[in-house]
Amino acid sequence: MSGVKITKIKPEDDGIRLNRWFLREYPSLSLGRLQKLLRTKQIKVDGKKAESSTRLCAGQELRIPPLDNEKAKKTDNEVNAKDAEYIQSMIIYKDERIIVLNKPSGLAVQGGTNTSKHIDGMLEALKFEKEEKPKLVHRIDKDTSGLLVLARDRKNAEILTKAFREHGLQKTYLAIVRGCPKLSEGEIKLPLEKIDEKMQVVKDGKKAHTLYKVIDTAGKKFALIEASPLTGRTHQIRAHLEALGTPILGDDKYFGSERLHVKEISDKLYLHAYKIDLSDIYNKKTVITAKLPKHFAEACDFLGMEIKK
Q1: Catalytic one among 13, 141, 153, 251?
Q2: Do 277 and 159 share a domain, yes or no?
Q3: Is 141 a catalytic residue?
Q4: pLDDT tens per residue across span 11-41
Q5: Rounded distance between C-alpha atoms, residue 36 and residue 25, angstroms
Q6: Which range marks the domain in which residue 150 is found?
C-alpha cells in the first residue's frame, strides 16, 4: 500500500505501550480510529497483529498505514517567542537526563479551568537537541514557587516518577508563617483527607509526615521555616503548618478566616520549593537549590529574617 511506513522502535522507547507511542507521534489520531486500524491489522508489530496495550521492544518493526493527516505534531513555532524566552529563563539546571526550572509563583504547572498559560503548554520550547519535549514527573501548586524537575526522555521519566512516588528524593521547602512553633524543630504526623476542597486532619485519613525546622524568627509574630515532606499528600505542608498553629502567609485556603495581610509585603503565597537532593538518582552528591523569588526575599528583608548557613 502506498504511504505505508515501517518504523524501527528506538532503544529509548523500549517498553512503551503502543497506544502511548501513537498518541505521542500522531496527536490527531483518535483512539477510536487507532482501535479500528488495529482490528483491521493495518498496524502490525514485527508483521503480527498488535493490541493497544502491546508493549513495544527496542528493535521491533512497526507497520504504520498512511497517517499524514494525523501527524499534526506541535512544533516549537507554536510556543511563541515570548513564552519560549520566558520558560527558558526559568532553567537553573540542565543535563542529558533532566531540566530543572525555578517556577514563579502564580504560574500553573498544568492547564485547567480558566488556565490558558502553564508550564505543560510551553514544554516544546525546552526540547533543545532532543526529539521529544521534556516530561512532567511531579507537580507543585500554582502559587508555590521553586523547583520543578522535568525528565528529558521516557526512560528518565519512569525513573524519576518512581523516585517521587516512593519519596526517595528529599525535597526542602521554605515558608514564612504567622507565629512561631513551640518547638524549634520537630515532625508533624497528622493524617490528611480532602473535605470540601481542602485537606484536613482526619483520624482515619491518609498518612502524612512532615519534618520542620525554624530557621529564623521575627519576634513571636513570624517565622521562617524549613519543611521536608516525607509523604506526598496534596497541600501537605500547607495543611500541616496550619494544624501546627502557624499558617503560611498569603495562603487563602489554609489561613482560615483570620487571613493576614501585611501591607508592606506582596500579597502572595510564601511557600518556596527550595532544594532537592537527586544523589540517589545520580549515585553521587547532587543537590540543586532554587533562588528565592523577589517577593519572598523582600519579605524576609522586611521582617529581618534570613536563611542561616
Answers
A1: 141
A2: no
A3: yes
A4: 878 888 898 888 878 877 888 888 899 999 9
A5: 18
A6: 76-165
